[in-house]
Amino acid sequence: MLTSEYGELLNLRPMTKLKPASSAEKDTRQVIMIDDNTDTKSLLKNIDHNPKAYFLYNPKGHHANANALYTSLKRALTKQYYGNTVKDEEHSFKGTIFSKLTLPYEVFHL
């Protein structure tokens, strides 16, 4: 593990045993810190440019922001690889008997 003079984590050896190309070459990976100000687009760019890097959320950050970033990252990756999966409510029942209903009690009586 390599740390800076300020105590920040810079590089980290993987926890799993990997065989490097040569025995003299050590496998170190870059560590990228994510904080409250990180947006999804920049995080996706970092993931694309550094596929072997470790991404750590700053422990001084807020849990709600980390959870929101994780949720937006999941949503962006789902949209990127599977298309838009969120359906509009008005189009989801198109062509069925439920398309004419507007109130909950109408659904109950149906």
Provide the domain count. Answer: 1
Mean pLDDT: 76
Structural class: alpha+beta
Portion of residues in beta strands equals 5-15%
Low-confidence stretches: none
Largest sheet: 4 strands, mixed
Strand order of the largest sheet: 1-2-3-4
C-alpha Rg (nearest Å): 23 Å
Overall description:
The longest helix is centred in the middle third of the chain and has 20 residues, at 63-82. The protein has one domain. Strand 1 (2-3) and strand 2 (9-12) form a beta hairpin. The chain is elongated and about 70 Å long. The protein is of the alpha+beta class and 110 residues long. It is 36% helix and 15% strand.
Structure keywords:
15% strand, elongated, 110 residues, alpha+beta, 4 strands
Short structural description:
With 110 residues, the protein is of the alpha+beta class. It contains 4 helices and 4 strands.
Outline the fold blueprint:
Elements: E1 2-3, E2 9-12, E3 29-34, H1 40-49, E4 54-57, H2 63-82, H3 89-92, H4 104-109
Parallel strand pairs: 3-4
Antiparallel strand pairs: 1-2, 2-3
